Here is the input.
Amino acid sequence: MNSNSLKISNENLKRRLNAERRFKFYGVIAISLALIFVLILFTNIISKGYSAFYRTLIEIKIEFNDKVQPEMFKQMSDTEINKLDLYSFSKKNIYSNFPNIEKKSDKKKIIKLFSIEFEEEIKTYINKNKNNLGNTINLYISASDDIDQIHKGNYSRDIPEERRRVSNFQLSIYDELVGQNKVKFEFNLPFFSRGDSREAELAGLGGSLIGSFFTMIIVLLLSFPFGLFGAIYLEEFSKRNRFTDFIEININNLAAVPSIVFGLLGLGILLNTFELPRSTALVGGITLSLMTLPTIIIATRASLRSVPPSIREGALAVGASKVQTVMHHVVPLALPGSITGTIIGIARALGETAPLLLIGMVAFIVDVPSSPLDPSTSLPVQAYLWNDSAERAYEEKTSAAIIILLSFLILFNLIAVFIRRKFETKW
Amino acid sequence: MENKVKVCVENLNVHYGEKQALFDVCMDINQNEITALIGPSGCGKSTFLRCLNRMNDVIDICKVEGSIKIDGQNIYDKDIQVEKLRERVGMVFQKPNPFPKSIFENVAYGPRIHGLAKDKTELEEIVHTSLKKAAIFDEVKDRLDETGTSLSGGQQQRLCIARAISVNPDVILMDEPCSALDPIATAKIEALMEDLKKEYTIIIVTHSMQQAARVSKKTGFFHLGNLIEVNDTETIFSTPANDKTLDYVTGRFG
Here is the structure.
């Protein structure tokens, strides 16, 4: 070969190199498209949802009088204060913040600027500060969802008045309050602690967060041990015959079954036959476990299979029994893979909605559940419920619920990746 | 002077499903000697070796007929406990396969499951002795906590030998123990085998005829599942009785 033969190119080689370049180009296009879509999705959700994480408060002045005196609160316990009827007292005090308004219909409109629970918020304030109350107090109470949306700029004022939920009169009062610097934003802590509500400014994720938490605990407790030991038995101990082949095919099929089918199973067997309590995290957890189980079994079997046979031989050769070999050497090496599979399975279960609709976890539940036996919803179902609600304020809450859900999913996946990296064994 | 017969194999037939891997193998293996098994790939020498500690049991389709007696006891008898058998017949594999655990744990595992040590000091004693016998103690004594897989290939193989002798076996089976090692590591293992044969009966499968010639007292030549010839190593390499053996040892096939 002379030195030039490496440099002279011919038609054939050119074609090959071009084909290679084209192939790389297609790959780059595919990846970029996928990334662009993910970016659009995230920007859309975050831009819609971030405003749900803070809320609007309006400052009002409260004057105590002969009937409602600061001194009388000092002797009362929290529950006693909560039982007091301060409704008309609160209402009158709110009116007196707007001395120019005298018409009764206008007063009603003013009350609508505030959250429907203004009485409770005033009581909470009194409870917190009962030992150092002056004769007049200034406190911030929540704005109604409509004012909240207007203050956040989510709700356009350009809509004609007859189609707007906030009248021109209310807007003028709101502007006045803003002018007096009496409207402020605050981090929306109640959004994470409260249950669902028909009043948009009160509705929170708390109930569904706890519901999802209980559901995932049930899923973890049921599917991880069963999945792990099922996989160990099938992979290490069972003889290969038609029966085990049949089981294997069915496990693989189960992983591909549409999730709603599991919901039907939960409805038919858990609710109707065993009469377990409807709408509970327990039933939701059992139903979702059925869905997660094949994922865990398949992941665990794959990681058991990737443990080199030489490790098994090494243990057997020093006289370990089959169970000792598997439990002392094979399973510890396969565990990271199994845990990764479990986390990914649980992340999938966390985002699952359809089966939960069928077992009644879609109900409107105000109370935050305190055990897996209480009726509850879950994060994705809450997003689904809010998405169905008419009020404008639920739109940001829907997106906020999805942001929280996605953050958990990303967190789970990061943990899975971390475990895989950290415990990856090199032979 | 002939040593006493340790392992006595009679009419050993092994089938993998339809395929027969060994045909009527009969062989006596002497105590405190190194016996080498040579032959081309797929000739059945590894299968034969794995019959001696019943490692073939884990393969479902493998059927073993005939008898293998160790100290007069047939290891394929129904009431034989395989775990006990493997305690007496240790094995070292082609590719070093230490457990991905600490060096100490690698050696301590066998004694622990067999309950050979009463307490921690005894266990340490066993681990240290085994590592010393395997001529690796000096190299690893300061880092017994490091993982076995962090050692070099030759060290890993000696660690595996330490693991095999930790349960105090009579017989050590070696399945091409040096095929993954460089010549220096190989030389160390060979020197080690020379030491070990004083205490143990060693059977080694090897592809290197020089190695067989260097280390073994007796050599068996396998071909297509038959034990063609077994004799003193010197005879096998100089004046074998069978033409096939001659062809193989002189490099004409294989």
Chain A touches chain B through 22 residues (CB under 8 Å). Residues 77 and 127 of chain A are 8 Å apart (CA to CA).
